[in-house]
């Protein structure tokens, strides 16, 4: 019962995290007339304040000294910070410039790009259905390029930057709160410097468009940190495969907002391209669930089996007729069935969208 309650709580946190990431396109337009770079700078500055307070409350500071003693890890953290800055900045610009649908496509194809990076960089081997899914996604990009009259650069940059960011995070192996703190700390001074420079040039919108606008810019820290905290709470309570399926909530919400709320155009060729991407994701998810089910079945049906030893009782003849005859004990050898180890199953990677 306790485990069920924990999993139910984890699902609620997961829905909360991906739901907020999916609805965030409604927030960025509220920050106009601030530009994407100014919003990004404020997001970095205020995010560090929020996660710093969270770490202070949790008293989790020991990892900072360990990180400072590892130049390679510190370098990877800096690289991750730069890559996520590109991802965040482009996403904000896309939403505020009428490209919500194209941005959502980036997060739809992100799992497929992650698979491609796994093959090209990590030397991973794909199963047949995974190859089919990657092929469908490639065809989708071609169809969308025809539809847009250009390659879907926003989608591709968002997908590849976030997949690369995920690869670096895998190598870093840091918690969500700690990694966000480290990344925003690396970029804090440049971001703060840019905000101060805008103010000195009279181009800052922070203090010139009312208290409400200033509070909204400061709220970018909460918009960044709260979903991440929810994601972390979900990750420790639900299986990774479940979390991998929940991640599709965010781009679905974003796509719906782009079409129904922002009324972005969806000509037939774009529907065709998106349909190919959705088909690829459906295949990928079905294949992962099927492989996981087979693995569980093998482990349940073929555990190690040990046959009990069979011992024949000693037979003693009466002493008057003949000397005591003792038959040797017959012991059947223990039969051990080999343990069947299911192959590793990789669920669709669970990611943290912008």
Automatic annotation (TrEMBL):
Keywords of the record: Cell membrane, Membrane, Transmembrane, Transmembrane helix, Transport
Listed SUPFAM superfamilies: Multidrug resistance efflux transporter EmrE
TM spans (from-to): 12-31, 43-62, 74-93, 105-122, 129-146, 152-168, 180-199, 211-233, 245-265, 271-289, 301-320, 326-347
Domain EamA, first and last residues per copy: 9-144
Database matches in Pfam families: EamA
Family of the protein in this entry: Belongs to the EamA transporter family.
Protein name, as recorded: EamA family transporter RarD
Organism this protein belongs to: Streptomyces caledonius
């Amino acid at each position: 019962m306790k485990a069920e309650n924990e999993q139910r709580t984890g699902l609620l946190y997961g829905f909360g995290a991906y739901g907020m990431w999916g609805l965030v396109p409604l927030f960025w337009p509220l920050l106009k007339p601030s530009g994407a770079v100014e919003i990004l700078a404020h997001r970095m500055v205020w995010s560090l304040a929020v996660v710093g307070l969270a770490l202070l409350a949790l008293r989790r500071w020991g990892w900072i000294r360990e990180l400072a003693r590892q130049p390679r890890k510190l370098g990877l953290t800096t690289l991750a910070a730069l890559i996520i800055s590109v991802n965040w900045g482009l996403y904000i610009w896309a939403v505020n410039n009428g490209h919500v649908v194209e941005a959502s496509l980036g997060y739809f194809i992100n799992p497929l790009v992650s698979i491609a990076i796994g093959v090209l960089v990590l030397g991973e081997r794909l199963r047949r259905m995974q190859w089919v899914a990657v092929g469908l996604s490639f065809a989708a990009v071609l169809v969308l390029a025809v539809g847009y009259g250009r390659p879907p650069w926003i989608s591709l940059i968002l997908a590849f930057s976030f997949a690369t960011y995920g690869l670096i995070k895998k190598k870093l192996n840091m918690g969500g709160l700690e990694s966000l703190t480290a990344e925003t700390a690396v970029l804090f001074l440049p971001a703060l410097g840019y905000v101060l420079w805008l103010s000195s040039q009279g181009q800052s919108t922070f203090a010139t468009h009312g208290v409400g606008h200033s509070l909204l810019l400061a709220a970018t820290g909460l918009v960044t940190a709260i979903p991440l905290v929810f994601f972390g709470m979900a990750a420790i309570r639900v299986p990774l495969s479940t979390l991998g399926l929940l991640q599709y909530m965010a781009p679905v919400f974003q796509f719906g907002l782009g079409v129904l709320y922002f009324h972005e155009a969806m000509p037939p060729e774009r529907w065709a391209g998106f349909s190919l991407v959705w088909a690829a994701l459906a295949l990928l998810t079905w294949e992962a669930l099927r492989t996981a089910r087979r693995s569980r079945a093998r482990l349940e049906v073929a555990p190690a089996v040990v046959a009990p030893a069979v011992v024949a009782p000693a037979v003693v003849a009466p002493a008057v007729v003949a000397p005591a005859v003792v038959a040797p004990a017959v012991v059947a050898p223990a039969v051990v069935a080999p343990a069947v180890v299911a192959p590793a199953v990789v669920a669709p990677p669970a990611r943290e969208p912008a």
